[in-house]
Design a protein that fits this description.
The complex is a heterotetramer.
Chain A (H helix, E strand, L loop, with lengths): L5 E10 L2 E11 L4 E5 L6 H8 L7 E6 L2 E2 L5 H6 L2 E4 L11 H6 L7 H15 L14 H13 L5 E5 L7 H16 L3 E5 L3 H7 L2 E6 L2 E7 L5 H9 L6 H10 L18 H6 L2 E10 L2 E9 L3 E5 L6 H8 L7 E5 L4 E4 L3 H5 L6 H9 L13 H14 L16 H14 L4 E5 L7 H16 L3 E5 L3 H7 L2 E6 L2 E4 L7 H10 L6
Parallel strand pairs in A: 3-8, 3-9, 6-7, 7-8, 13-17, 13-18, 15-16, 16-17
Antiparallel strand pairs in A: 1-2, 1-4, 4-5, 9-10, 11-12, 11-14, 18-19
Helix pairs in contact in A: 9-16, 13-14, 13-15, 14-15
Chain B lengths: L2 H30 L7 H19 L2 H25 L4 H24 L14 E2 L9 H6 E2 L1 H19 L1 H11 L1 H6 L4 H28 L10 H11 L4 H23 L6 H18 L19
Antiparallel strand pairs in B: 1-2
Chain C lengths: L11 E6 L8 H16 L2 E6 L3 H13 L4 E4 L5 H10 L4 E5 L8 E6 L1 H15 L4 E6 L4 H17 L4 E6 L6 H13 L4 E5 L4 H13 L5 E6 L10 E7 L1 H14 L7 E3 L6 E5 L9 H15 L19
Parallel strand pairs in C: 1-2, 1-3, 3-4, 4-5, 5-11, 6-7, 6-8, 8-9, 9-10
Antiparallel strand pairs in C: 10-12
Helix pairs in contact in C: 1-8, 2-3, 4-5, 4-9, 6-7
The chains are: A alpha/beta, B mainly alpha, C alpha/beta, D mainly alpha.
The complex binds adenosine-5'-triphosphate (ATP) (2 copies) and magnesium ion (MG) (2 copies).
One adenosine-5'-triphosphate sits at the interface of chains D and A.
Chain lengths: 505, 308, 320, 355
């Protein structure tokens, strides 16, 4: 085979006492899409960041077109034609999309840049609101901006770290078509994603990382799903459980038009009879128009919709975090909440795990009501969550900011579930989780609903909503539209999402 | 106020506002890069002494201004080495640089002119009236019969605005001040941008100091910067990190200060300390009435370490 | 004070100031006085600049316990700390310039500056054409107040109808403020300006010079030192305090007869306070004015002029 | 200060830090030599005047550190909540005015009533001085950095006005207040020294704040709001504006105490130049301490010893005040350099200790 465009060998990287990479390797060829997979915390982002010049490796070699090379900074990476789209956004919130795109395209006039931007958007179909400040746009637009920003520089190697997590299925399809086109044009593409079906659909070759090591690297045609999962999870034998979990609970993958994991016993009628837990009536807010909703004990209310149609505002109102401008919101005093932006609203990145657990749990009566913080108890609780949710952190004293994206999410979920609230509002709860973890969360949601918790599942992942929800509403332009039983399919909901809720009541 | 008095008042306002405008304009760029230079006071006083010594050595106020800029830049260089290269806390570094700047200028002045000082008479930077503009009624002489450094401030405001908001470097500057990690990922050399912006701010503060010595007072005295570095930092905020607004904010502060002397000269029988507090109270009031405030650069005062 | 082990026979003198001695004025005069004592009396000397009241006690204690004989504390702000230190160290003598409190070993040294500014006021009254004169000060401390009140009285003694403007900048060193305060008075029509500033005084002369260059007739009056040579083109004369001489004579007196228990006054009588016309401009001064100033000076020396005096020292009736 | 240096850069920073320390020391020595002074004598005087003897240390250095201790704690408290209170200077003056007013007005009361009343009133005044910036931030969204700076100037001139006007000493001559009565003066803390009880009070507040941050719910809320107001609000259901309101005023109150304690413990009267920018130095004190109350005690004493040593350099080594300021600045820069070396060392140690 030809000399790989990029070859990483024996890459090591430490963070304090954490060994994030323990001799990982990766070969990327021109003309190929290369899927990089692994559990949360396996070291995928770290490896790609080494490639992108953001992190210096502590050991190992990097070869570019066969020549040993040191990548000392993002600029260096660029000079070698390596373009990296990060897992966590690296956009400047205060600048407009256009300005973010122009940043780094040095030596060109703004007119020229505008031209290149227009052409590239036309070619790639990555539509973005060019003149909006990044601060004001949704995560989908941000993701597209990131990708566009990287493509503008015409990289030889395009590296994408979990770009699909925040895109709609249609957008994912579009992106994959684009990646295939780029590969056909002779570029090398590396892609991290947690949804195996997505990765398998687009990749020519796959690499699996586990605890910082490359455990498998093979052609797409040579591997099976089972083999990949086994490599990721790492039980020498083919891990039936993992594959089983993946198959059974992966919503939408069971193929049913409206797959309902709870089978026939849960019907809309039963849900109506169950006690009402939360209710919003005629709510108006910044991005909400006359929303009326009810949530009952024991049901999962799915809220589908394209990012930025008022879901986040609805989540804030339903979780009691915000009083609506008009209308009434009757919600329980305590509502568990898994917010959209985990690094901003879910966690304090400069706090350790105990402190992040304490952030929510210390207001519970079981942690006392006095003026003092019961640190010992909270510490124990944090430890419990760390073990129970398999958070990859050396101890509860690890700073949340040092966790991998998926592990941050685990901490939040663990904490919020520990609140023991009668209602849970979750926004994209499995975004960024690996297969096993996502399956675990889905299982938890189902179990909790069956135990009587009222759950509002807000997700841009239609499969997730359709797979888990008892009832579905679609958010479009601030309105909530009920999805009738008959329309509960990808096509039906998709149509409602686009119709703009004209017939909403 | 009669018309003559109004003119005199405006002249005074512009004279008092110009050094603030010069220093604040530089600091605007510095802060846009995410660096707050509390050591500005040190650069101003260094600029005043540098300007004085330069004007004496080269026998000309114009070269004195350049010497002042150099002196201000040198002080900012010390600040930058610690606060940017070393990643030390900006506020502490700035505090040290201010103390050191005030001390060092005093020491040099005493070494040069004797322990008990001299009443230094410096070549002055005379006002230049701009034909035409200076004849505009009321505001003409106030704005257009000033020292050349005033015109520098007028010209710098739109240029700085253009650089910040309309050039590639300005884009890098703003990105650096808002989200250094993102800027670095996009290939911006964050620490270099910060260095350049900080040195520029120091040079402008140096010019402000040289203006005080050469265009305003015609002398140098220890501690003559009298807290203008801190006021300039407040002016930057009042001007919302926008060089054009900063110019107006500086002139506003100059006007508030001029008012204090005017009211005293008019013989108002009020404790003078109340007049002295006036500019600050007026600025507070202006801020409160200044609807829709803007934010500071998000990474202001945060040291930046490349993620490596 | 490097030589701590020097035999105790030599005089050891210390000076405290709350501003830099490089001001070519009030503090510079005190520092020159210290050096004069060093030279003339073969004394060993030391100086400390203090910034806050917290440092006053500390400095007194440090000097007293290091064996200094006499401490010149150059400003009324030291008076309370001086009394405290005096009680703790009975052997030391503390001279407080402009101080208001007396004890056995704490002695106020009162500069009768008003005798000089009264004369300056008279001169100003003769020179003003607009019949408006101005006073620009730093901080309104008693010597400044006293000097200004006497200047006013001097002006009025010649012409009660003359308007006298007053401004304080709040800062002895802020040259920009001093300049603008002067400009404001000049633009109100004042044409003779006296100052009471330190380092910032030059800005007053500069402002006057600028209107003179514009064709107006205006004068400045110097203060503290003889500033006539500083801006010979605009300074009409200077109200002078000869601080070094006052310090030296005080130190001599301490050595000869001891000081204590009573304030020391220095004034025109000892030639410590004076008003001197600027020889460069004296031909512009009407003979009558020169004559009147000279006559009044001797009358003041004789104690025949009723000057507005700020009674500084506690319990003082009317001292000189 | 920022702890987040990555290992690869740690060595570079450590080297730079050592370079900075060497450079500042060398520069200090050379500058003094060039100015015609003896660097050895200067250093010796500095040490002798700050830590030369137990009595020097207690009576001068610790006494000097008291206002920095209070103001530093005030700043640390505010900064922990993400409140950039640059206004300790003005709040200090407000506290001093209020304290001295109580002492002069209620001069017949016994110590046990008078001193607590003075201190309480100074807290109220300091908090009141912080109230305008607080409301401007919470109601109008105006950043507190500029408003607190402006309030400093207003505070300084208000104190100046007080001692020339309403609170001027009885005879109306000197710009100061009358001396406060014995009953209003803080007793000595360590007998035989000049150290007054204000220092002990400062220590108590430091311990109180340490307990607050470590152990209490409200302290935790302060830290959460300071670290991330969004997460505090959404995940913690904390009302950031409430926490900010209380913390800002409490910070003002502690800064106010700095003024009253200085008057009641040391100067016994209010003067115009009571503080030489302690409110600003306090920011350096708090930041150098990493915003930790315990650390503030140490750094306040460090800055106190710098100022104490500065006085001795003038008196004993004959070095003029301006030069002393240069040395002081260099020492601060040197300490910053060392601090960076330490931070870098921690990063490398962790790695090398474990691999
Ligand atoms: N800045 C950091 N400081 C400390 N530890 C870190 C840091 N970044 C990553 N780590 C640790 O390194 C390991 C690998 O993290 P990395 O982000 O590469 O995982 P990942 O495979 O991308 O996971 P995910 O799928 O959750 O994004 C994790 O254990 C993580 O906690
Ligand atoms: N049991 C605990 N579990 C988790 N975090 C804790 C616990 N106890 C204390 N902490 C945290 O330890 C840190 C110490 O708090 P802080 O920095 O205020 O200490 P300090 O009192 O200032 O320290 P010092 O006295 O050394 O200056 C805080 O982050 C606090 O939340
Ligand atoms: Mg990752
Ligand atoms: Mg992830």
């Amino acid at each position: 085979m030809s000399v790989p465009l990029v070859r990483l060998r024996g890459i090591e990287r430490w963070f304090g006492r954490v060994r994030a990479l323990a001799g990982a390797s990766l070969e990327l060829h021109a003309g190929e899409v290369h899927g990089v997979i692994g559990s949360n915390g396996a070291g995928k982002s770290t490896l790609l960041n080494v490639l992108g010049g953001l992190l210096a490796p502590d050991g190992g070699t990097i070869e570019i077109a066969g020549a040993p090379t040191a990548i000392g900074s993002p600029r260096d990476a660029w000079s070698h034609g390596i373009g990296l789209v990060h897992q966590h956004f690296t956009l400047v919130p205060a600048l407009t999309v256009r300005e973010n795109l122009a940043l780094g395209l040095r030596g060109r006039s703004f007119q020229e840049i505008d031209q290149i931007v227009d052409v590239t958007i036309e070619q790639t179909g990555l539509w973005v609101p060019l003149d909006a400040p990044v601060r004001s746009i949704g995560v989908g637009d941000r993701q597209r901006t990131e990708i566009l920003k990287t493509l503008l520089r015409d990289p030889k190697l395009l590296v994408l770290d979990e770009p699909t997590a925040v895109l709609t299925p249609e957008e994912v399809d579009g992106l994959f078509t684009l990646l295939r086109t780029l590969a056909r044009e002779g570029k090398a593409v590396a892609l991290v994603a947690h949804k195996l079906d997505e990765v398998l659909a687009v990749s020519d070759r796959l690499t699996v990382l586990r605890t910082g090591e490359t455990v498998l690297s093979a052609q797409r045609s040579d591997v099976s799903v089972r083999g990949l999962v086994a490599a990721m999870v790492g039980d020498g034998v083919a891990d039936e459980i993992a594959v089983g979990v993946y198959r059974k609970d992966r919503p939408g993958s069971s193929g049913g038009a409206h797959g309902n994991p709870k089978g026939d016993e849960t019907t809309a009628g039963v849900a109506d009879a169950a006690p009402l837990v939360g209710r919003v009536v005629d709510v108006h807010d910044d991005a909400l128009v006359d929303v009326t909703l009810e949530v009952h004990a024991g049901e999962v209310l799915g809220v589908a919709g394209v990012e930025g149609n008022g879901q986040h505002e609805l989540a804030l109102v339903l979780s009691g975090r915000r009083a609506p401008i008009a209308g009434q919101a009757h919600v329980p005093e305590e509502v568990a909440f898994i917010p959209q932006d985990r690094q901003r609203e879910g966690l304090v990145v400069d706090f350790d795990l105990t402190e992040n657990v304490a952030l929510a749990l210390s207001r519970l009566d079981r942690f006392g009501t006095g003026a003092l913080m019961p640190w010992e108890d909270l510490e124990k609780e944090a430890e419990r969550i760390r073990t129970r949710f398999d958070v990859a952190a050396p101890s509860t004293e690890t700073l949340a900011g040092a966790l991998s994206g998926g592990n941050q999410q685990r901490v939040i979920i663990g904490r919020e579930l520990a609140l023991g609230a009668p209602m849970l509002v979750a926004e994209n709860p499995t975004r960024g989780l690996d297969v096993a973890a996502a399956a675990y969360v889905h299982g938890e949601l189902t179990r909790l609903a069956s135990e009587g918790l009222a759950i509002v599942l807000i997700s841009t992942d239609l499969d997730e909503v359709l797979g888990l929800a008892d009832r579905v509403v679609v958010m479009t332009r601030g309105r909530a539209v009920d999805v009738p039983e008959s329309e509960r399919s990808r096509e039906g909901v998709g149509a409602l999402m686009l119709s703009g809720g004209a017939e909403a009541t | 106020m009669s018309q003559v008095e109004l003119v005199l008042f405006l002249e005074s306002a512009v004279r008092l506002g110009i050094p603030l405008a010069l220093a604040a304009m530089g600091e605007t760029l510095t802060e846009r890069s995410g660096v707050i230079n509390i050591g500005l006071e040190g650069s101003i006083i260094a600029g005043a002494l540098g300007g004085a010594l330069g004007a004496l050595a080269f026998e000309g106020a114009g070269l004195g201004i350049i010497a002042g800029a150099m002196a201000g830049l040198f002080v900012a260089l010390i600040f930058a080495v610690f606060a940017i290269s070393l990643g030390a806390d900006q506020i502490i570094t700035g505090t040290a640089v201010t103390i050191g700047g005030l001390g060092m200028t005093g020491a040099i002045y005493q070494a040069q002119f004797g322990a008990t000082g001299t009443e230094l008479s410096l070549p002055t930077l005379a006002p230049v009236a701009i034909p035409g503009l200076s004849e505009i009624p009321i505001v003409g002489t106030a704005f257009f019969a000033q020292a050349p450094t005033a015109y520098l401030a007028y010209v710098m405001a739109p240029i700085a605005w253009y650089v910040i908001f309309r050039t590639a470097w300005g884009l890098e500057l703003r990105a650096t001040g808002e989200a250094p990690a993102a800027a670095e990922a996009a290939g911006v050399r964050v620490r270099r941008v910060r260095f350049v912006a900080t040195l520029f701010g120091g040079a402008m503060a140096g010019i402000a100091g040289a203006h005080l010595a050469l265009a305003h007072a015609g002398t140098f005295a220890e501690n003559m910067s009298a807290g203008k570095g801190f006021i300039a930092i407040a002016v930057v905020v009042l001007g919302r990190w926008n060089p054009v607004l900063v110019l107006f904010a500086a002139l506003f502060f100059g006007a508030a200060s001029a008012l204090q002397f005017f009211l005293q000269a008019l013989g108002f029988d009020i404790a003078y300390q109340i007049f002295l507090a006036l500019p600050y109270v007026l600025t507070l009031a202006a801020l409160a009435g200044w609807v829709g405030t803007s934010r500071a650069p998000a990474a202001l005062a945060l040291p930046w370490e490349p993620h490596r | 004070g490097e030589d701590m082990d020097e035999p105790s026979s030599a005089l050891r003198a210390a000076l405290l100031t709350s501003g830099p001695v490089s001001d070519a004025g009030w503090y510079a005069g005190a520092y020159d006085g210290l050096l004069l004592i060093e030279d003339s009396m073969d004394a060993s000397v030391s100086h400390q600049q203090t910034a806050t009241p917290a440092e006053y006690d500390e400095a007194f204690i440090a000097y007293a316990s290091a064996g200094y004989d006499i401490i010149f504390a150059h400003g009324n702000e030291y008076q309370d700390a001086a009394i405290r230190a005096g009680e703790q160290f009975p052997d030391v003598r503390i001279i407080v310039s402009g101080g208001g409190r007396v004890s056995e070993n704490v002695v106020p040294l009162i500069f009768r500056l008003e005798e000089g500014t009264y004369l300056a006021g008279m001169a100003a009254a003769y020179m003003t054409e607009s019949r408006i004169v101005g006073m620009v000060g730093g901080v309104a401390i008693p010597p400044a107040e006293g000097a200004f009140r006497a200047f006013e009285a001097g002006v009025r003694a010649v012409d009660p109808g003359i308007e006298v403007l007053e401004a304080f900048t709040g800062d002895w060193d802020d040259v920009a403020a001093a300049k603008e305060a002067t400009v404001a008075q000049l633009s109100r029509g004042a044409d003779v300006i006296i100052h009471n500033l330190d380092a910032a005084s030059f800005a007053v002369f500069q402002a006057v010079r600028e209107v003179v260059d514009d064709g107006r007739v205006a004068y400045a009056i110097g203060m503290n030192g003889d500033q006539n040579a500083v801006a010979p083109d605009v300074i009409l004369g200077s109200a002078v305090i000869r601080i070094p001489e006052a310090f030296l004579s005080t130190a001599r007196r301490w050595q000869a007869e001891g000081v204590g228990g009573a304030p020391i006054y220095v004034n025109t009588e000892q030639d410590v306070i004076d008003f001197v016309f600027n020889p460069e401009l004296i031909d512009r001064v009407p003979a009558e004015a020169i004559e009147r100033v000279a006559v009044t000076k001797s009358a003041i020396r004789e104690g025949e002029v009723d000057l507005p005096r700020v009674i500084v020292v506690e319990g003082e009736v009317e001292g000189r | 200060m920022s702890g987040g240096i990555a290992p690869a850069r740690a060595r570079e920073v450590a080297l730079l830090g050592f370079g900075a320390v060497a450079l500042t020391l060398g520069a200090g020595g050379l500058l003094l030599l060039a100015g015609g002074y003896d660097p050895g004598a200067a250093g010796a005087a500095m040490l002798r005047g700050s830590v030369g003897s137990w009595n020097t240390f207690v009576s001068i250095t610790l006494v000097r550190s008291v206002p920095l201790l209070f103001a530093g704690l005030a700043v640390a408290l505010a900064f922990r909540a993400g409140v950039w209170n640059i206004g300790a200077e003005g709040q200090l003056y407000a506290g001093a005015i209020a304290g001295v007013w109580v002492a002069l007005t209620f001069d017949g009361f016994p110590t046990l009533i008078l001193i607590p009343a003075m201190l309480a009133m100074s807290c109220v005044a300091g908090a009141a001085w912080a109230l305008i910036p607080t409301l401007m931030r919470l109601r109008l969204g105006i950043g507190e950095v500029i408003t607190t700076i402006l309030m400093n100037f207003v505070g300084i001139y208000t104190a100046a006005w007080m001692v020339h006007g309403p609170l001027q000493e009885e005879r109306g001559i000197f710009p100061q207040t009358d001396r406060i009565v014995e009953a209003a003066r803080l007793p000595s803390f360590i007998p035989g020294t000049r150290l007054h009880l204000g220092f002990a009070l400062g220590l108590v507040i430091a311990i109180g704040l340490a307990v607050l941050f470590r152990r209490t719910r409200f302290g935790f809320q302060i830290r959460a709001v300071g670290a991330s107001p969004e997460a505090a609000a959404v995940a913690g259901r904390i009302e950031p504006s409430r926490v900010i309101f209380i913390t800002f005023l409490a910070s003002g109150a502690i800064a106010g105490l700095a003024g009253a304690v200085e008057v009641s413990g040391l100067t016994y009267a209010l003067y115009e130049n009571l503080s030489e920018g302690w409110g600003y130095t306090a920011i350096a004190v708090a930041l150098l301490a990493g915003l930790r109350p315990g650390g503030v005690v140490v750094t306040a004493i460090f800055f106190g010893s710098l100022r104490a040593g500065a006085g001795a350099m003038q008196r004993d080594a004959g070095i003029p005040s301006a030069w002393v300021d240069v040395v002081e600045a260099l020492v601060i820069l040197g300490v910053l350099g060392l601090e960076r070396v330490r931070a870098a060392r921690i990063v490398t140690d962790i790695r090398e200790g474990d691999s």
